[in-house]
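Morning - magnesium ion inputs below, output right after.
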Amino acid sequence: MNRALFLDRDGVLDALVFREGEWGAPLQASQLELLPGVREALDLAAKNGWLIFVVSNQPDAAKGKTTMESLRAVHDKLLRELGGAPIKEFFYCFHRAEDKCSCRKPQPTLVLEAAKKYDVNVYESWFVGDVDSDIECGRRAGTRTALIEYEHTRSRRGAQRPDWVCRDLRHFVHALIGQTSSYAAQSED
Ligand SMILES: [Mg+2]
Ligand SMILES: [Zn+2]
């Protein structure tokens, strides 16, 4: 079985945007900006055997703040910015909370779908996100959890207990690789 990193998108891979008085996901391609160190972190994780998935709620078209076409353009820009980074698949929920869908985080559905499709052992995998609903999603799916302390989402975390708290994705991947190699070194003794 494989082990995987399930990553939230906004606040983990790319920056939030200040709009209508609050910080939120990019609504159009020109607003998308990668966070520092992301590409290198993804490469390093993949090189160390981690499958990488993105699991993201994108309700802004359903809310009428943008269009599905613009959300697709944001996604395409992200792919271009990532420049062939080794992400296996993106799993998006485009619904609003009130739509009562089955795929929106903190529901674990998309994580479990990815795990099934790619033969992933969730217990050896991680969910990495910057808000409480990411941590809850990982916990409900059975993964370990890491909370990224992204500066613009402070008010949306604090009620969940992640396994790790990290400054950013680069910090998380370095800690993960360090832990894995020291574990391997120990078990060789
Ligand atoms: Mg986020
Ligand atoms: Zn959904």
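Note: The longest strand covers residues 50-57.

O.
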